[in-house]
Every structure is written in structure tokens, then in C-alpha cells.
Specification:
alpha+beta; 5 strands; 128 residues; 2 helices; 34% helix
């Protein structure tokens, strides 16, 4: 399930960094640059917003509440927060600072499904 609405909240499952051509951003940050990871997180955000738009419409989003990102990282990579800025910056671009500014967590892991570089999920408050 890509997302679940409960009351005025929309819980969006983890989204992948899928490019327009269908390919994934794969690899581990530390081997990949922060810039490559940032673009991957931005793609996750774009794909997540597509799901939100399909489900309820972006105009129904009252506020981005929480973004949670998992970054495929080498053992010495410590800049997961900079990677997740790709998604966070996008939310503020789309919704403005008042509606797009959100709580966030960014963690590193040693692997992700399909070898992808980053995965992002979100929680959105909806207009009633």
C-alpha cells in the first residue's frame, strides 16, 4: 500500500529514487557523493508527492508533518542529514515554508532493497 489515510492524516510508505526513465539511483553514500544522494532524496520526494496527488490532491495538504529517510551508507559516512535535504527542500519549494517545513529523521543503514541509495516516507496533515 503506497499510503493510508486515517482521519485528517495521510501516512505515505517509503518511496524510491526512481528517475523518469524508470532507473533507480543505486549505491551507497560514501561511494556516491552527497550531491548524488541529495538528487536521490529529491526523486523520492517527487515520487511521494505524485502518490499524494493521486490519492487526495496536493491542494488538500494542510502541512507536511514528518519526513523519515533511510540512507544506504558506508560505515564512515555521516552526512545523512545533508542527503535528506533533497526531499526537505522540495517540500518547502512545493508547499512554502509555512506548510512545507516539517519534523525529520535521517538514518544510515548498510543496505536497502534493490541496492537503492535512499528511501523516504512521509506523514501529511490534510484539510478537513
Amino acid at each position: 500500500m503506497a499510503c493510508l489515510a486515517q482521519g485528517n492524516m495521510l501516512y505515505v510508505s517509503g518511496h524510491l529514487p526512481v528517475r523518469d526513465d524508470g532507473s533507480l539511483v543505486v549505491g551507497r553514500l560514501g561511494d556516491l557523493s552527497v550531491e548524488e544522494g541529495y538528487e536521490g532524496a529529491r526523486l523520492c520526494g517527487i515520487n511521494m508527492l505524485s502518490t499524494v496527488d493521486d490519492r487526495v490532491g496536493l491542494d488538500k495538504v494542510k502541512r507536511v508533518t514528518k519526513i523519515f529517510g533511510i540512507v544506504n551508507s558506508t560505515l564512515d559516512f555521516e552526512e545523512q542529514h545533508l542527503v535528506l535535504n533533497g526531499c526537505s527542500d522540495l517540500m518547502i519549494e512545493v508547499f512554502g515554508k509555512e506548510r512545507g517545513y516539517h519534523a525529520r529523521s535521517a538514518i544510515g543503514t548498510n543496505t536497502l532493497p534493490l541496492g537503492m541509495a535512499v528511501e523516504v516516507e512521509g506523514i501529511f496533515e490534510l484539510e478537513e
